[in-house]
Structures are given as C-alpha cells and as structure tokens.
Design goal:
Strand content of chain A: 15-25%
CATH architecture of the largest domain in chain A: 2-Layer Sandwich
CATH topology of the largest domain in chain B: Aldehyde Oxidoreductase, domain 4
Strand content of chain B: 25-35%
Shape of chain A: globular
CATH topology of the largest domain in chain A: Uridine Diphospho-n-acetylenolpyruvylglucosamine Reductase, domain 3
Largest sheet of chain A: 5 strands, antiparallel
Shape of chain B: globular
Order of helices and strands of chain A: EHEHEEEHHHHHHEEHEEEEEEHHH
Helix content of chain B: 25-40%
Number of helices of chain A: 12
Number of helices of chain B: 19
Number of domains of chain A: 3
CATH class of the largest domain in chain B: Alpha Beta
Oligomer: heterodimer
Helix content of chain A: 25-40%
Structural class of chain B: alpha+beta
CATH class of the largest domain in chain A: Alpha Beta
Distance between the termini of chain A: 59 Å
Strand order of the largest sheet of chain A: 4-5-10-6-7
CATH superfamily of the largest domain in chain B: Aldehyde oxidase/xanthine dehydrogenase, molybdopterin binding domain
Largest interface: A-B, 28 and 31 residues
Structural class of chain A: alpha+beta
Strand order of the largest sheet of chain B: 3-7-1-14-11-12-13
Radius of gyration of chain B: 27 Å
Chain lengths: 295, 781
C-alpha cells in the first residue's frame, strides 16, 4: 500500500525541529532511519499529518566519551555501534549485540534514537539501556531533561516523551575492569525480531566473585524486563551452575509474557530462563578471561 | 545415441545478464500514456451476504475514473461473471455473497494507486454474516454449512470431464483408488500402523506479485500483458468471460519474477480486462504482498494413513487425504486427482485403498503449488515409513529399498513405471549423508541425527505443447513457444534443444516470448512439464526444418540424406566437415535469395488413459515419473527446541540433464522452498481472519537460514521418449524435504512430529511428553 497523505518538513537544526514539534504536537511524527515508521506508514497503521524528517541533523550523529560516559547522538546509525572503536572499547555489549538488530541493510539506516523511542518490546537496544541504566537526554523548547531508562519506557511502543519533546542523546556507562557481557536471543530465522532475548553484564573481582550483575530480558513483557532482586542472587557469589539454575527458574516464574503467533506465553517463560543462564554463563566466562588478560 | 554438443552442457542462462543489470521487462515496468491504476475493496468477513454497497462518495472523488461492483458485472450483457479452471465458481467481483476474508468486492480505477486506495475508504458495504466453515474435516462432513450451493464444471480440461455435481456437500471432488483387498490385508496383518499427518495452508511467495495490464489497441482488440504461467489458458478464459472470439484477445507475457504455481489460470485478468473495456483506457492492477495472501495459497491437507505389515513387509495401505481448497476450487480437483493416486507411495504394496477429497472452506482459495499436492502426501507416507521401520527395528533405508518399485513394475494405479531412478536416488542420498557411517557427535544440550526420505511425482498427463521454429537464411533461429520463462531457465534449455537438433550455435537461437497472436498453444508452464513437452515440440519442429535443409543439401552435395550431419552452422557428409555447406549456402540453393525463412511446426500431445472413476486404475496414468530422495542431518537444541539443518542433500532423477547446472539449481531452489514449509511457514487463521498476512509475520527462509552443507545430486536415468532422454525437474526437489528433516529429528531426539511446520515449541512439547523429568523447565502447552 501507499502512505496516506502527509506534509513533509525537513528542519536543518535541532532548534527548528523543536519549533515544529511545539507547533504541531501530536500531529507530528519524527522520521529518523524509517525502518519501523515507513512500513507503518505504508500499511497505514500510522497516518501523521506532519512528517518531520531529522536526517539533516548531522550534529546528532556522534559517539563520544563524555564525563565518564559513552554519549551517543540520537541520529547515530546502528551500524556505527557495530564498528566504532570507541563503542567497542568503552561499551562492548553495545558493539557485540548490534549484529542481532535486524540486518546490515536495516542497521545502515536505522538509528539508535529511533529504536529506543519506538520502544518495540523486543528491541535489543531497550534491553541494553535497561540493563546498563542508560540515561536519556531529552530536549524541548522548554529546555533539557535527563531521564532513566527505567522511567523512560512505559509500555508497548510507548515512552514518557511528550509530543513536543525529542530524544537527542543516550548515555551508557563505561564497562568497568573485570566485566563481561553477552546477549542471547531466540529467533526462528536469522535477523528476525527476537522471540525472547536476554542480556547480561557481570563484573567479577580477582577471586572471580560477582560484584555486579545486570540482567534484562525482551519478549516477555510490555517493555524490557529487569528485576534487581534477581541480580542480587548472584552478587557476592561465584557464578556456578546451581546459582544460574536458581536465577533462571526464578526469572521464568517472575515474568508474565503474552501469547503471540511466534511463541506461547509458556514457551517464552521457559526460554527466558534458559537464555538467562546462557547469557550469564557467557558473560562470566568473558569476565574471567578479561580478568586474566588484565592481570 | 551419438554424443551431443550443446545438450548436456551447463551453458549460461540466456536472460542472466539482462536480469542482473535490471534490463528485463516485467509487467509492472510497462509505461503507457493515460495508464490507470486499480485498488480493490475486499471482504472483512469469512462468509457474509452483501446487503448493500454505497459507492457514490468514492465515485465523486477527484481522480477516480470508475467504481465497479460484482452486481454491475453480473448485469453486463455477454459477460460471464464467473470463472475458474475446474469449476466456474469464482465471481470476478463478489455478487451476492463473500466467501472468504479478502474476497474482492468493489474495484476502484483511478489515476494513481494512492488515490484509488483513498477512495476505498469512502465505500460502505453492509454485510450480513453467515455461518462459517473453516476446518477441512468439519467442512467434509455432511450437514456442514455449504460454501457453494451448486457446481458448474468449467469444461476446460479433458481429464476433468468426468466431474459432475454430486449431492450437496463441500466435497467438490473425490478421487478413489481400489487395488487388491485392503481389508483382508488388515485382517491378516501382524502389525497395523495408523497415523495422521497435517500440512498447513502456505504461500508461494514469488518475488513479483500478480500484476496485469490491459489496453484496447487501435483495432479495439483486447491486449493483455500479464504475469501468468498460462498465457494460452488466459486467452481462453477471457474469450469465455468477455464473449469475444479468441483472435480478439492477445495475451503477452514478459519475464516472470517467479511463479511456483501461483500464477496459473485466470487470476486478475478477467477483472482488469473488464475495467479496461469499461474505461476505454489502459488499466493496470498490481497486487500488494498482503493481497497475495488473499488471492492464492498452497492447499492445507490432512492425511490419514493406515498400513498393514506382515513378516516385516507392507501388505496393505489405506490413505484418506483431505485437501482444503478454500472458497474457490481453482485447480484443486486436478491436484486431488494427480496427488491422490500417488498417496500410497512408490512402493510395492499389493492392497491399496485411497480416498482423496477436495473440500471447500471459507478460506482464501488454494491452487497449484510447486509439487501439486504431492509434498503433502509424501510428508505423510515418508514419515510413516520411518515410524514403521523404527518400530520393526529395520533400517529405514533398507525398508524403503525393499519396497521400492523397479523398472516395469505396476504403480498403485496399475501403470507400469519406466525410467524410474528411485532406488538409485535413495542409494545416492544414503551415501552422501554417510548413512552407514558413525553416528554424529552430541553434546550436553545439542543432539544430532540423520534422516532420509524418498518419493515420486508423475507429470501432468495429458497436456499439449505446440512450437514453431523459424530458421533464417543466416542460420539464426527464432523459437516461438508459449512456455513462460519464470526463472526456471526454459529459454536456455529450449534454445539448447533447438541448437543441438539444428546444428547451430546456442547463441544463434532466440526465444520469442509468449504472445497468443504469435506463439502456439501450450497447456501451462507448470508441473515439471516444459523441458519434456515443449522440449519435444521444439525438437520435432526443428527436425522438420532439418529435413528441408538436408533435402536441399543432399542434392547440392550429391550425398545420401542419411549421411548428412548438421553441426556448427554447417551441413556436411559425416566425416568431411570442410566440404559441406553453410546454412547461408543452403538457403541460397533453395530460394535463390537471402532473407528467407524455413519454418517447422510441431504439436506434442502425449495421451493418458483416464483413471477409472471407481478404481482409480489406468494402464497409463502418466507420461513419466520423477523420483526424488532427500537426506538431512540436523542438530536440535534440547533446551530451546531449535532445529538447525546442518547438512542437506537433494537428489533427483532428472533423466538426461539438458543443462546440469540448471538441474542442480532447480533441486536446490525447490529444497529451499520446502525448507521454509518444513520449519517456518504457515498461514495462521483465527475465525477466518489471517493473523500473519505480511512478510513481517509470515516467515520464509533467507539465504542465512540455509544448511551449512547444502548440495544436490543428479541421477540421470534417460527417458526413452524425452528430448535427448530428459525429464522434468521443476518440482522434484520439493518432494521429500519435510519427511527427511522430521525423520532426522526423530533420530536425534526420539520425538516424532506429525504436523508441519516443525516449530521449536512442538519439539519441546514432544521432549517433555517423552521424558517428563522434574527439573526440566516447565512444559509449554
């Protein structure tokens, strides 16, 4: 199908974009990489009056280390995460997990900000943002605010952004020494939306005892699922099969997923436990290797 | 047979360079002044009566040229509002009732596609919902809501002439086969095996969706450019629909972006022709991918098998197969007949009873799909062959080899089989997968297993291919054929056959694309028939040219006809190529002038003896058989249920391969299609609504989902009446993929899956039922 009629705006600056958002409010929709929005327009699932194309805002396409964080501009293409040396060395999880996002062709267009704001319940970037406590930098005509990933994601394809607001930057913490990470995903075919995915990041001390653990899952809730109580199970412990098993089964019990075409709720509950154990084990193995490399 | 020069060579495709550089013509790319576009309003109900349609707001919209309803078509003089290849059961647009979600109801013609789609939103249709029947087994029962009230045979195909209206039911065709005494076999059996296997409705998914363009030329002739696999049939259909003589309709087909059976018989053509006649302007209708899902599907099927075994040998088999043909029969009855008689397998079974049913439901229509219903029945009998052999503790390959039919033995229909490389295919498949080798290694969470399957399909018989071959005085050749080049390589293979027979270079042969004003009748481009049927027609027509050339050359060279040879563009006495004549010299000798042509024409029409309506028996039910075997090695993740096909071999008896590379590509391409059907693809319905009607949710394999080790093997058992010994190969690779994978999965895990597709969830459920261990994560239900 073809999109319904819309008016096209292509602002040349963030300020101009914010003016348009202020002026048109709910009637406007931002077009970034277009990997989700354009199909929705074609199916007429979205019919905004005004399409605000921000692809001219090249100053929102950057990766830099700033105040001890990795700052990523909203218009940064997903491909950049995969190949940027800065991303690889500062937040390896982002670099490693990016290959799970769609296909090379979609990553060349798809943006970091677009994926986060779209808030698909199976988007890998939402899980990483939740697990690592990423910060969202949001601007409007009234100024700038910073929000936690926890508050930012509200429900399926819904964030707490107001219509006149725009996400301009996402800040990820820099991986500490002795850390390891993994993103395990269950897909039927290469490049599909995840049925279920789990990301894990752990930090071990020199005795290989876990000092920090983070775990977030997609495909089991309306937004990326994270429960700090589960992470407590392995903090202060050596990562053993029995600890992982305990965590996996608690996670399976806690989540309340939904049935859809691709998997039943029961299947999702089962998978999230299996994938959590696999992700944590991989993350722990990597952390041990990193520790040995660092010493 | 003397050694061939071009036949048997893997020459490059004629269309390759043009395709990869984007210079090939497709219907969607044709530009024409004043071309109008179409959008169609479709039914939201699986079954409903149309109470009223309000279309005036759409008609008033700027840019809208015509808004047409089915009732208006039904009122047109001389127009037959119904069409279809087996029954005239499908209205061009719904007249009084809609029979499935997506049934076309109102057509809008506008200056562009977006405006046509906008106008759809201004049309209001009042419906009264009617009782719905969706399950094929429910629909087959008497007393179910009727999808159609009457049967009107279309009378197009001789082999369907015996179809007649029975009592009122949704079963629109019932094929019966009775051989021996199957009840006695069950009484005397040591063991009886009963299993039910299902295949869901699925999509053909050609890259190019259906598209048709119609315009009236200066002579008011109806000119049709359409993406069809059956141009000759489309002309006949339009002649009936429009009440026009056949020579007032011209159907042309450029290159297709894939067909796989989706583009057979009439599809969009009756509607678009009417729209062009009504508007007097060129009109194109191109389906969206979402409309494809509502237009034509692969038959879902339920197959029940009951098999008697005595002393380790199969003595009897009863097959009941229910094909869900959806709301319109399309070619369903012919599929039920052709696949029906193969349902017991290519095995020596003395007592067979087959009942195969074509059943209407309120789903989108099902039609031909690469394999023509046979993959659905092979899924059943080859899964059960493994179930039986495992239960009897007999090696599954040996069990098949023991029962496999050999040259000259009768098939279940009574037809003796010839050129039947079944055992050879099985042996090659077993060897390639190292069947007798050591078991593959397992690790803690991932287990491996191997599986094998074999099967056979018969070519559609009778059918007809006509060809005209024209040789020009420079030795170049035009071949006029209605075979559609849809990616299968027919242009290349037919050129190889003509070049071989005429003794000219491959590059000198040009295939004229199907054009019913120019190219003769051909039944269809489908069913693995073109290489054999059109190949024979082209070869026979070429022989007629050669006879004329040799007549002239024999006089000029003072040689005997039987000593002459045509090769490399020259005609000479065998053994003395230098002293012969060029084609140019032969033409000069014959006509005394250049620029002249010699024409040969031929019609190839192999006959069949119709199967007996009560017993299904025939001394010749088909012209030839094409056996297939597949071998798979899989790895199953016991914790997630995920299946990875690590190794796959597609083996087929192709007869003599005219172009071996093409044959390999056909075997692999077909296997990829069926890999999707095995692991991913299913049209999921809820109360008649399709839940996954787009490529976002309906999953087909991509190149990254293919087995790491993926190969094909040609078994070349020459066919005595094939062109240079060739048979068809288009469907062979689809036949045995699914059971080979399911058999490998059982080998790896002990879990038997009977319902396609084989999803991780079904495997996990099977593992849990087999081994309900505490501690294993909970069982998905």
């Amino acid at each position: 199908m073809k999109p319904a009629k819309f008016e096209y705006k292509d602002p040349h600056s963030v300020e101009e974009t914010l003016d348009l958002l202020k002026q048109y409010g709910w009637d406007a929709k931002i077009l970034a990489g277009g990997q989700s929005l354009v199909p929705m327009l074609n199916f007429r699932l979205a019919s905004p009056e005004i399409l605000v194309d921000i692809n001219r805002l090249q100053d929102l396409d950057y990766v830099e280390e700033k105040d001890g964080k990795l700052a990523i501009g909203a218009l940064t293409r997903q491909t950049t995460l995969e190949f940027s040396e800065t991303v690889k060395s500062r937040c390896g999880l982002l670099a490693d997990a990016t290959e799970l996002i769609g296909h090379p062709q979609t990553r060349n267009r798809g943006t970091v900000g677009g994926s986060i704001v779209h808030a698909d319940p199976t988007a890998e970037l939402t899980a990483i943002a939740r697990a690592l406590d990423a910060e969202m930098v949001i601007r409007s005509k009234d100024g700038e605010r910073t929000d936690s990933a926890e508050d930012f994601f509200v429900s399926v394809m819904t964030t707490n952004l107001e219509p006149e607001e725009m996400l301009v930057e996402v800040r990820f913490p820099i991986a500490p020494p002795g850390s390891g990470w993994a993103f395990e995903e269950f897909v039927l075919r290469h490049g599909d939306f995840a049925v279920v995915g789990v990301t894990a990041a752990v930090t071990l001390n020199s005795d290989e005892v876990c000092t920090d653990a983070r775990l977030a899952a997609i495909g089991v809730d309306e937004t990326a699922f994270r429960d700090p109580a589960l992470e407590e199970i392995i903090k202060g412990e050596k990562i053993t099969d029995s600890v992982l098993k305990e965590l996996g089964s608690q996670l399976s019990e806690k989540v309340e997923p939904f049935d859809d075409l691709h998997a039943s709720a029961a299947q999702r509950k089962h998978l999230v436990g299996v994938l959590a154990q696999r992700a944590l084990q991989k993350a722990a193995n990597m952390a041990v290797e990193n520790l040995r490399g660092e010493n | 047979m003397s050694k061939t020069k071009i036949v048997g060579q893997s020459v490059h495709r004629k269309d390759a360079a043009r395709k990869v550089t984007g210079r090939i013509l497709h219907v969607g790319n044709i530009e024409m002044p004043g071309l109008l576009q179409v959008a169609v309003l479709r039914s939201p109900y699986p079954h409903a009566r149309i109470i009223g349609i309000q279309k005036s707001r759409a008609e008033a919209m700027e840019g809208v040229v015509l808004v047409l309803t089915g009732a208006e078509i039904a009122a047109m003089p001389d127009v037959d509002p119904y069409f279809g290849p087996a029954f005239k059961d499908q209205p061009i647009l719904a007249i009084d009732r809609v029979l499935h979600v997506g049934d076309p109801v109102v057509a809008v013609v506008a200056v562009d596609r977006r405006r046509a789609e906008d106008a759809l939103e201004l049309i209001e249709v009042d419906y009264e919902p009617l009782p719905v029947v969706l399950d094929v087994l429910e629909a087959a029962k008497s007393g179910s809501p009727l999808v159609h009230q009457e049967f009107k045979p279309a009378g197009v195909f001789a082999d369907l002439d015996h179809m007649e209206a029975g009592e009122k039911s949704n079963v629109c065709y019932h094929f019966k086969l009775r051989t021996g005494d199957v009840e006695a076999a069950f009484r005397e059996a040591d063991r009886i095996f009963e299993d039910t296997f299902t295949s869901p409705p699925a999509q053909h998914m050609p890259m190019e969706p259906h598209v048709t363009l119609v315009y009236l030329d200066e002579d008011e002739k109806v000119n049709v450019w359409t993406a069809t696999q059956s141009p000759s049939f489309v002309r006949t259909q339009l002649s009936t629909t429009l009440g026009l003589p056949m020579n007032r309709i011209r159907v042309r087909v450029p290159y297709l972006g894939g067909g796989y059976g989706a583009k057979l018989y009439g599809k969009l053509e009756p509607l678009v022709a009417l729209l062009a006649l009504e508007t007097r302007r060129p009109v194109r209708y191109a389906l969206s991918r979402e409309e494809e899902f509502q237009t034509i599907t692969k038959h879902g099927a339920v197959a029940r098998l009951k098999t008697a075994v005595k002393d380790g040998v199969i003595t009897g088999r009863r097959c009941e197969v229910f094909f869900d043909t959806g709301a319109y029969a399309d070619i369903g009855p012919r599929i039920v007949h052709k696949s029906g008689y193969t349902s017991a397998g290519p095995y020596r079974i003395p007592n067979v009873r087959i009942d195969s049913f074509c059943v209407y439901t309120n789903k989108p229509p099902a039609g031909a799909f690469r394999g023509f219903g046979v993959p659905q029945v092979i899924w059943a009998y080859e899964s059960q062959m493994d179930i039986i052999s495992r239960e009897l503790d007999i090696d599954p390959v040996q069990f098949r080899m023991h029962h496999a039919l050999e040259e000259g033995e009768p098939f279940a229909t009574g037809t003796p089989v010839h050129s039947f490389g079944l055992k050879e295919s099985l042996e090659q498949a077993a060897e390639a997968i190292e069947w007798s080798g050591p078991r593959p290694q397992n690790n803690a969470t991932k287990v491996r297993g191997k599986g094998i399957a074999s099967g056979v399909k018969a070519v559609l018989t009778p059918s007809i291919s006509g060809a005209v071959v024209m040789m020009n005085s420079d030795g170049s050749v035009n071949v006029l054929s209605s075979t559609v080049e849809m990616g299968q390589g027919s242009d290349t293979v037919l050129a190889q056959i003509a070049a071989e027979e005429l003794g000219v270079c491959f590059d000198q042969v040009h295939l004229v694309q199907p054009d019913t004003d120019v190219t003769p009748y051909d039944t269809i481009t489908a069913g693995s028939r073109s290489t054999y049927h059109m190949g024979n027609a082209v070869r026979m027509a070429s022989m007629k040219i050669k006879a004329q050339l040799f007549g002239v050359a024999a006089r000029a060279l003072e040689a005997n006809l039987e000593d002459l040879v045509a090769r490399d563009g020259r005609i000479f006495v065998s053994g003395s190529q230098e002293s012969g004549m060029s084609m140019r010299d032969v033409f000069l000798a014959k006509f005394g002038s250049l620029g002249t042509t010699i024409i040969g024409e031929a019609i190839f029409e192999p006959r069949a003896i119709p199967t007996d309506p009560e017993t299904g028996r025939s001394e010749k039910c088909t012209e030839y058989w094409f056996p297939s075997a597949s071998a798979a090695e899989v790895e199953v993740d016991l914790e997630t249920g995920q299946v990875k096909v690590v190794k796959f071999l597609s083996v087929g008896d192709t007869g003599t391969a005219i172009n071996p590379r093409h044959c390999h590509q056909q075997l692999l391409g077909a296997a990829i299609t069926q890999l999707g059907m095995t692991l991913f693809e299913e049209m999921v319905f809820e109360e008649g609504q399709l839940l996954n009607g787009s490529l976002l949710d309906y999953q087909i394999p991509s190149v990254k989902d293919l087995p790491e080790h993926f190969e094909s093997i040609l078994v070349e058992v020459p066919h005595e009446t094939g062109p240079f010994g060739a048979k068809g190969v288009g469907e062979t690779g689809t036949l045995t993929v699914s059971p080979a994978i399911a058999n490998a999965i059982e080998d790896a895990t002990g879990v038997r899956i009977r319902d396609l597709p084989i999803t991780p969830e079904k495997i996990l459920r099977g593992l849990a039922e087999k081994d309900p261990k505490p501690g294993r994560a909970e069982v998905p239900q």
